[in-house]
User: What shape does this take?
Amino acid sequence: MPRSSLVPRLQPFTSTIFAEMTALATRTGAVNLGQGFPDTDGPPAMLAAAQEAIASGVNQYPPGPGRPELRAAIAEHRTRYGSAFDPDTEVLVTVGATEAIAAALLALVEPGDEVILVEPYYDSYAAAVAMAGATRRVVSLVEEPSTGRFALDLDVLRAAVNDRTRAVLINSPHNPTGTVLTSAELDAIAALCVEHDLIAIADEVYEDLVYDGVAHVPLGTLPGMAERTLTISSAGKMFNCTGWKIGWACGPAALVAAVRAAKQFITFVGGAPFQPAVAYALRNESAWVRALRDGLATKRDRLSAGLAEAGFRVHPSAGTYFVCADVRPLGFTDGADLCWQLPERIGVRRRPFYPPCHPPWVSWHCGLPRRRLPGSLCVSIELTMRRCTDKGERPGRCAIGVASWHEKCQRHDSLQWGEEMGDQAFGPTLRRLRNEAELSLRQLCALTGINYGHLSKVENGLRPSTESIAGAVEKVLKADGALIALDQLERAERRAQQVASRAMKRRTLVTGAVAATIAGLIPPEGESAHARGRIGTSDAERLQADVARLYALDYQHGGGTIWQAAVALAGDGYDKLERGTYGETVETAMLRAVGRMQMCAGWLAFDAGNQDTARTCYTEALTVAKQAQDAEVETHALANLAFQANVLGRPRQARRLALAAEEAATRPNDNPRLTIIPQLRLALSSALTGDATDSEHAVTIARNVYDRNADKDTAEWTAFIGPAELDAIDGTCALELGQNDRAVALLGRSVAAHKDDKYARNRTSIRVRLARAHLALGDVDGAAEAGHLALDDVAGTVTSWRVATELQSVAEGMAHHPTVPEAASFVQRYAATLTA
Assistant: This one.
């Protein structure tokens, strides 16, 4: 039986945020404001037409392309934009717009093609791209400082197009920001599509819901776009009949025929009695649609005013159901926390932005959380509130309720984490006492004011406790001081481990000077963890300098000696952010510094063999990167996750992460070598799956980027990248591909280039791989020579789980040659060195 029945490309999509938040609302009895459907039905005459169709026997399969009267009505409806579609060959009726999008991607893109998506996006987009075997390339909307409008970054869009780009999927009016793309933005998209011969898939389901005199301009009406644009819309948003699932796609006959070929094997057909009713509405209910739009505009204005009065910073919305509001003025830094707590706090359910890797944003459909955006922390609210007698139906009351709830949550401890992961006594004790008190975790959170996600991680040993958490749960559970005592004991143990870890005490694996340096980096207990004074940019600069020093130590000695110091320093940075006083500039600088330290801590923990800690640090680094809009940290964290996956034998997962890192590297940053790292991860993942062509292509790209930027300054974490390191990666890929002669040549050249000890840990790793390559060629003497040199480093100052693991494989290979003196000598020395 396979480990998972679901293919890897769909494993990230086993659940939707819609389902998760609806389940939460059901469990807590909250008003469900998280599902994107209207509160009222559509035009009465349209409903009557559907009833008549059912009574008249229109209940069997309709024609594959859709009923003729509906296709004709759709074609007529598009003439208002100056478009002319043949209803027989250029219009296709689908089971909602979601099916049209999925069928279009399945029909029009190949595995390996890239599809450009504008982030944030409706969550089916990513799943449909994955089903097609294609790759997402994401371009984020950015906030215009002067207006607060979310705009398309045209430079980033242009940079996203490459020779693998097949299609662009555009949504305007935009879900969930409410943005309507301007003429300049649409012209730029059209110019790129024409220049690069791209297919445009235009999701225009909110085409009639535009406000303040803003006009919706279909992308397909622009010069050169009619022959390459598939325009998708639906009756659900237009006529308040989302459950009917009647959508359509219009475009040139060749594109429509391709989509139909895919669609016929997905649902075949659907909604027979609803199709004539929608045809009637398209021809006769334009006045009803205008009234719907005007009513939503009024609700938008009333809701925006209520949110602003409650303390939110409200962003303009030119269309759709959505209003975006910045929740940071209320003291929150993670919108998902807000969404998960509202159902139990005030009985209102929202949905976080999709995908969840962007923590600073959430979106409400009038209380409906949607998907996350980098930048400020926002929520988007649907303008059609659902009625609830005990909670009230006025949007202003919803906003006031949020503000009132916030006032009650001032004692919430954000549980900033930065110490060693793992909590083997406090967490289980907390769970036992909670169960004895017959309290659910959510009930305990409600009683203590502690964030559910944070307390869940403490209970499961994924984060350490804090003094405030121990005190709060102690008071509720009446634990007679047991939890406070455990918290004090474990914090003391963690601090002792940070200053003098077992790794530091190992024989000769680290010099006294290194240990002294590390101990000097770690802040003493109580010095800054409880500091409440003003912090400045100098604090961020010191933390950045500490990052540079730790990387320098890692390059020379490996992560086994220093990872706990990095974790402690990241925790110190979090403490300053939590307890200090500072302005916005300092906040951004500190977030960037903390993100780099978390990234460094993850790398060091990985090199020391602490995989769970490494993964958690990388995830924290991603979170901070999104808050600080730091593309460099985001790229590095994703690339390091990819490297970890490669080393742990998951090259397909590594490839997905490396591609995400490649996307992140396209965003504005100051590191000229940033794009090299994702290419190196892609090279190794391709080699591990036997794809020599892709592996060599990625290495070539990396070498070209380095050659163009060799004389430019770079960050400390990319300082090691040079010809020697590129040879090392190239040689490692050759080794995995079975190109052993080439591997020996490249790895040998790389070792020879490492003439000093500045990069001793890197040199040790390369020597071990050179030994493996010699073994693969049957050259036992050459393998022993390289292996002995690696053992010299390990016996000196290098301590690395990764090096030790690879050395073990070399020793096992040598053990197969007991009659060769050099092999026997190496095995004997390996055993003595690694077990000492």
Residues 349-424, 495-519, 524-532 have pLDDT under 50 and may be disordered. The longest helix spans residues 286-310. Residues 584 and 590 are 10 Å apart (CA to CA). The chain has 34 helices and 15 strands.
